[in-house]
Amino acid sequence: MSLFLPQREASDSVAGAMTSHVVVPATEFVGAAALVQAVTPTWLGGGMTNPDRRVAAIATGQLGAFTRAQANDVGLSDRQLRSRVQSGFLVRTGPNTFRAAGAATSLATELGDLLLSLGNDAWASGPTAAALHGFDGFSLRRPFHVLVPRTRSLNRWNVKVHRSTNFELVDRERIDGLPVTSAARTLIDLARVASSEQLAAALDSALRDGLTSETALHRRIVALRRQGRFGMPMLHAVLAGHEVTRGGQSWLEREYLRLVAAAGLPAPLTQQVLTKAQDQLVRVDCRFPETNVVVELLGYRFHRSQGEMSRDAARMNALIADGFRPAQFTYAHVVTDHAYVVSATRSALSLAAAA
Question: Using alpha carbons only, how large is the chain's radius of gyration in Å?
Answer without folding.
Answer: 26
